[in-house]
Amino acid sequence: VIGNRWVSGAFDRVVVMRDRNGKPVEAAVLDFKSDAAEDEAALAELTKQYSPQMDIYRNALSRMLGLQPSQIGSKLVFINAGMVRDI
User: What is the pTM of this model?
Assistant: First the structure.
């Protein structure tokens, strides 16, 4: 639950880096997208479009792992374009 809204979803991939004691110290969320994007402008628009979704994922993972959102990176992996964009 975020605010007064029920949100459901599934991470495509999460990578968690841990310290020697196994405590999470940072993480990354990767979300795979199959959208067609012919050029950089289209990728930029899609990145902007998916940014709110990635913020939700980052905040959810933050709560799950006990990390600050700033300790969690997020990347969109555009598989058809062969490109990765940081969010």
Answer: 0.86
